[in-house]
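4.2 Preliminary Data

To establish feasibility before requesting continued support, the project team ran the inverse folding procedure on a target of 146 residues. The structure was first converted into the token representation described in Section 3, and no sequence information of any kind was made available to the design step. The complete token record follows.
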């Protein structure tokens, strides 16, 4: 397995991977090819793919606002789970964020995503019960839950 930076040329394979993973929350705007290109253009150093034999078996999108890192859309192919792929991707993203001077990182996981929550907890990410996550869409989006 190799870990490398993601490019927009990876989009179709990434999107197919996301659709194969139960518990992902996608939408037709942010997760369109154009939406992902915008994210990669802003965060070229912090988004990674895990590859084996030219196949993308895992991905992580990470970015920052100059103060805090944010992790999005971490996914590992169901056929490759339990082999350290997710951990390697998280470590690559955290190292890249750290090299940019970012000292803490946040992420959102749907509460129904039991395996995702177990994974993040195992890696030391704690749940914050003192916050209320709020969201406001500025455009109409179609939600795609896997």
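Position-by-position output of the design step:
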């Amino acid at each position: 397995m190799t870990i490398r930076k993601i490019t927009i040329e990876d989009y179709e394979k990434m999107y197919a991977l996301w659709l194969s993973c139960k518990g992902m929350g996608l939408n037709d705007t942010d997760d369109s090819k154009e939406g992902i290109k915008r994210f990669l253009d802003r965060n070229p150093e912090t988004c990674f793919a895990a590859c084996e034999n030219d196949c993308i078996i895992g991905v992580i999108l990470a970015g920052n606002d100059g103060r805090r890192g944010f992790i999005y859309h971490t996914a590992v192919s169901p056929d490759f789970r339990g082999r350290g792929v997710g951990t390697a991707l998280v470590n690559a993203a955290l190292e890249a964020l750290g090299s940019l001077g970012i000292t803490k990182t946040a992420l959102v996981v749907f509460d129904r995503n039991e395996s995702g929550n177990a994974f993040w907890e195992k890696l030391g990410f704690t749940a914050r019960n003192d916050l209320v996550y709020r969201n406001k869409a500025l455009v109409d989006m179609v939600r795609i839950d896997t």
